[in-house]
Amino acid sequence: MPGTPYLEKPPKGLMTWPKLLRISIPILTAITVAAWWNEILLEWGIALIIILGISFIARR
Asked: The pTM is what?
């Protein structure tokens, strides 16, 4: 990959965007479908915004 700081491949255990997306997209999709099925989509959206907000503040 051009511009990578690693000589050959990323170090073992490093969480990169492709790995993170492969893990998080199926999980978020399943939770969203379950929330839609149980008609609590608004509550799921509010909870997701709160979780992402806390994560943003904690990483600052």
From this structure: 0.72
